[in-house]
Amino acid sequence: MRYFLNKLGFLLLTIWAALTLxxxxxxxxxxxxxxxxxAKFQGKMPPQALKAFELQFxxxxxxxxxxxxxxxxxxxxxxxxFSYTYxxxxxxxxxxxxxxxxxxxxxxxxxxSVVLGTVxxxxxxxxxxxxxxxxxxxxxxxxxxxxxxxxxxxxxxFLAFSNNIFPMSHSxxxxxxxxxxxxxxxxxxxHGFLPFLVVFLTSVSGWIIGMRNNMMMTxxxxxxxxxxxKGVSPRRLIFNYAARNAxxxxxxxxxxxxxxxxxxxxxxxxxxxxxxxGFQLTNAVTSEDYPLIQGMFLIxxxxxxxxxxxxxxxxxxxxxxxxxxGATS
Amino acid sequence: MMQTKKKxxxxxxxxxxxxxxxxxxxxxxxxxxxxxxxxxxLLAPYDPQSTNFAPSLGxxxxxxxxxxxxGQDIFSQFIWGTQTSLIVGVGSSLISTLxxxxxxxxxxxxxxxxxxxxxxxxxxxxxMPGLALLILIESYLKSSTPLINGVIIAVTGWAWxxxxxxxxxxxxxxxxxxxxxxxxxxxxxxxMFVEILPNMTSQIASNLIxxxxxxxxxxxxxxxxxxxxxxSNSWGTILFxxxxxxxMLSGSWWxxxxxxxxxxxxxxxxxxxxxxxxxxxxxxxxxxxxxxISKKNPALEPSGGM
Amino acid sequence: MSDRQPILELxxxxxxxxxxxxxxxAVNDVNLTIYKEEIVGLIGESGSGKSTMxxxxxxxLKGDAxxxxxxxxxxxxxxxxxxxKELRAFRWAQMAMVFQSAMSxxxxxxxxxxxxxxxxxxxxxxxxxxxxxxxxxxxxxxxRIDRKAMQSYPHELSGGMRQRVVIAIxxxxxxxxxxMDEPTTALDVVVQxxxxxxxxxxxxxxxxxxxxxxxxxxxxxxxxSRVAIMYAGRIIEMTPSQTLQLGERHHPYxxxxxxxxxxxxxxxxxxxGIPGSPPNLVNLPRGCAFHxxxxxxxxxxxxxxxxxxxxxxxxxxxxxFEGEQEVQHG
Lengths: 329, 306, 330
Ligand SMILES: Nc1ncnc2c1ncn2[C@@H]1O[C@H](COP(=O)(O)OP(=O)(O)OP(=O)(O)O)[C@@H](O)[C@H]1O
Ligand SMILES: [Mg+2]
Hints:
A: 329 residues, mainly alpha, MetI-like fold, 13 helices, 0% strand, C: 330 residues, globular
């Protein structure tokens, strides 16, 4: 329980930090660039909305602690303001529309690579010393060093543009009607495959190596040797005794890798024009749509922090030492 | 006596590094790029910005990597880009490792409340999605340069190293030689840099390597998204112009393929070097499993006699 | 002695570790027999090869360790002649071991019950889970831990309790032979005492033979009836435990150890009374391995390895004892 509260406290702290960053950056930057936007908004927006906008970006005569409190208040109640590009659409509406796509794509590619990589890692550790064992580290290094967005560009060019095997962009075909119908689902899978493949190829080998190394460390532990001596069957030895422990650092890496994965996702969405959060964020940057940039950054940060929180809780469940003691770290 | 011991250790570690085939391959590839970067003015056949050539030419003897849609020589851009990307990578990794070292070691060494606060800050930086944060900052900066980007990448990315340095520092603050130094009244910064630093060289090396890889990747991402001024020339800007110059539509694959391969090669070479360091510091990964590897038995140390 | 049934027979056993510096000869030409219901002590400095020998007997050597010579028989069966399936059935049912680092021998993410029941069910295929749990409970009674500990994870138990759980697991299948590799090293003196008393008591009840490995002379002398002294992978002396006191005639190394008793502890490998350090196991000295440190060494010690010479009720590998007749090992 202490563990849980600790993690929850940290979750809130991080979200607060992200909010504060959003508040502080436009006020700190020399020649606040959001000023340009204000001019464009003039006349386009009702005075009330304009005022909210001023508050958000610091064109106000109020002392900044008051601004800060008002700002936090409006953010916490979900008032992220209007998007400039899509006016009069609210930023929160755009978030609601794009979040599911990001969640779906990122969730699936992340989980598939982690699960498959972990299982393969166990397998390689079991057969250690084999050919796969000596090749995977090299393959892994190469794939991890390839910039994801570049691989995405290469795939788009060779598999979608030149050869038309896969669609080049978007998350579903424009003839499909979104909903729970087969042509739509098929189209989503078809469009999502290349982005998925990019994430999968660049990350799976990292998980394999990670798990393999954890397994090597764990197989040398006394409790595994002891269990082997006790006569525990080889299968149970590998899965229940060794892997069950070796997976713990893997879960920690899941949390650690997350920020990188989210970064990669932003670029991949940009390359594939996949209408998720990352795509909206990069577009908003191009069109200098600051309310949208802020909203998207905030949601990406919250998203990362929440998943991190969930991973922490999962870790607590897997490791009895933490579960009961409620240690801080 | 202490001094000579340390020296011998680092010498033998260095020898171990160069005896590892992977590490040597990595080191060679990286050195090759460094040489290209240093001698870019001699190696680049043309001015990377000049638009004197026929547009969208494929690779040929005159233009190894072809030309852009505005008639610039891509090979020359690539050579100069190598210089920029390496300076950004190395510079940024030095800065972030230094920041990470100071904060991490200070936290681990001081412990208590100081550690509590610094560790929380560290964790906040760790869970903040780095690229999103960079994009947010850059969106206010407008056109930046690769060098400024390198600094920003370092300032937002130091926490990775700090985390490692902190735990190492925590594990050695109670060792005799640190306690002795403290009791003899040595200043904190002196203990950090003179006493603690030599004991984490492998972690520092490893962090320099990863930070360099991370900075090269991050800089190319930012450049690709168009955050760098038009006059900048890095591997990332080549990709940006390829994207915006319709490289795909005109079928100019030679425009965007080389920078990506170069990044991947540099990245792999860094990872290979790190692999070599890992093998030296973590024998369990190499020796196939055994309970006790190092018994503190001087008679058994391979180099003990020499 | 020949009427007694041998439980463990080591015949010219040598074990080495392959390292980049060459082969580390951790166990060298060891002959040792342990009889039914007998407790034999094994004593030696850190790094002398005690654990290696124990692992070799259990056939648990890993990776770069290999048996370079000799045979190991337990209950008359050659341990290395079995196939893996036979080995899995034989090990723990007939011979068990309490690890040196018993603290880490329990899996941190499994309850005590799971780990005990696993052991029992791995061997008793006909048993139901409930029967196995009942047996596990009995075992906890034997080692005097509250049955409530069943549902605990190892980190929730004290060091002494963990140690008892490990001992309970070791005797779970009524083995005829148990190796105890420094079973109480990490514990404080009071707990150590109570566990040793308990081991003796259980051993009287269950009547298994024990190879008791330790650094601690007084402790071994108290537990064991005979004591083997190991130096650089060799058993250089085998002697009844009651002779282990100053004034009795022993191998020069044993005498050095006896003088050093007050200073001998688990972490202290420098032994006062014996100058110098243990030999390099990659390049063992010619002749008697102890001669460079031996205060009474003579010329022959430098190039001839001493044979086992009977002395009292045991035997000694030392040239100074020559002139008495040679024994068959045992
Ligand atoms: N995996 C290994 N590779 C190489 N040498 C090893 C390995 N394991 C042990 N050794 C060496 O073998 C020798 C015997 O080790 P062993 O663990 O059997 O000693 P020990 O008598 O049990 O010591 P302790 O009293 O400290 O437990 C030591 O010198 C040790 O350095
Ligand atoms: Mg031992």
